[in-house]
Amino acid sequence: MSQNQKQLIFVYNANSDAWSLFRDFFIKIFRPSKYPCNLCMVTFGPFTMKRTWKEFIEKLSLPTRFLHKDEFKEEFDQPDALLPCAYLQSNDELTLFITQETMNSVEGVEELKDVVIKRLIDLGL
User: Fold this and answer.
1) Which of 7, 62, 104, 114 is the most buried (most CB within 10 A)?
2) What is the mean pLDDT of residues 90-96?
3) Do strands 85-90 and 6-11 pair parallel, antiparallel, or not at all (unpaired)?
4) Residues 41-46: what's their mean pLDDT?
5) What CATH number is given to the structural domain containing 14?
6) pTM to 2 decimals?
7) What is the largest CA-CA distance in the chain?
8) What is the pLDDT of residue 110?
């Protein structure tokens, strides 16, 4: 990332290894109330990212990344991060953009899109 560039980083409360992805798939399908990642539940169908969310992310004014919790912990020193959440990265600095509480309270893609837009407006982005 070049200096003075900002990006959004959404962090799933799920690991990226094959076993975790397999297990998570079945939990999402058969016991969705037990699934620990509302970001995943809201933005993904059974197999792929929901089209409305993907189109929204592609049109944002900021580059966007999505990381699983193991990938996030490997790349950033945020041992107390409460997941799922989102950060705004500016250079090497991370600022909490959407808290775990807010991320867990959204009930659908449209509500999450509204949260993202409001936060961007609040930050003058």
Assistant:
1) 104
2) 91
3) antiparallel
4) 84
5) 3.40.30
6) 0.85
7) 45
8) 97
